[in-house]
Amino acid sequence: MLCKKLFLSGILVFVLLSFCFIVSVKASSEMWSQTYGGEGSEKAYSLVESSDGGYALAGYTYPSDAEESDVWLVKTDSNGNMVWNQTYGEGSIRALVQTSDGGYALAGGARLVKTDTYGNMMWNQTYEGEAYALVQTSDGGYALAGQKNGDFWLAKTDEHGIIPEFPSWTLLIVTLTAVLVVAVIYRHYLNKCNQGRRKSEKICISACSVDINSFA
């Protein structure tokens, strides 16, 4: 009887150990680690999971034979294997989003870069501030946050990354022009009113003259 219990206990322990081993093997097969780069220095600052189940990483690459770092965008599949990579000139990226059209928008330093699905640059904008965070807004534009002259900086752009920045002298000209237009319209209105008043007075005088002549 004791041997039978020991035998059954041994089988139970074996089954449990086998189950744990299978689970651990399956879990380890879903984990991986990848590196991307060459002989220089590369650093990723932002990561998004793409709509196809892969990943996109943005930061900079600093080749050993280069004087400045370049903006670098790397696209991988779901297992971290590189699908493509693109560079976009000098600089570094701190924020990355996948856009509603399947492309990507990258922000860092004074730049905002928009790409298509394959990382080909569509447009590039520069600003006076320094961007550290980025979101695509509900109207298709973008909002950037960072610092400008040592202060918090928040900027809203249109879908092409354009910020309608007007200098103070431009606003002054627009204001003076608007005042001038209103003054011209008001003067024209007064002239019309005066002309109508004089015309009414002439009609009234003529009518009175007719009435007087009829009694003469």
In short:
The protein contains 2 helices and 9 strands; from the N terminus they run αβββββββββα. By secondary structure, it is an alpha+beta fold.
What's the main sheet like?
A: 5 strands, antiparallel
Helical proportion, percent range:
25-40%
Tally of domains: 2
Secondary-structure-based class equals: alpha+beta
Distance between the termini: 152 Å
CATH H-level superfamily title of the largest domain: YVTN repeat-like/Quinoprotein amine dehydrogenase
- Proportion in β-strands: 35-45%
Strand line-up in the sheet with most strands: 5-6-7-8-9
Shape: elongated
CATH topology of the largest domain: Methylamine Dehydrogenase, Chain H
Low-confidence segments:
none
Radius of gyration from CA coordinates: 37 Å
Keywords:
alpha+beta, 5-stranded antiparallel beta sheet, 2 domains, 37% strand, Methylamine Dehydrogenase, Chain H, 216 residues, elongated
Characterization of the model:
Helices cover 35% and strands 37% of the residues. By secondary structure, the chain is α+β, with helices and mostly antiparallel strands. The protein folds into two domains: 41-165, YVTN repeat-like/Quinoprotein amine dehydrogenase (Methylamine Dehydrogenase, Chain H, 7 Propeller), CATH 2.130.10; 166-216. A hairpin with a 2-residue loop joins β8 (142-148) and β9 (151-157). The mean pLDDT is 84.
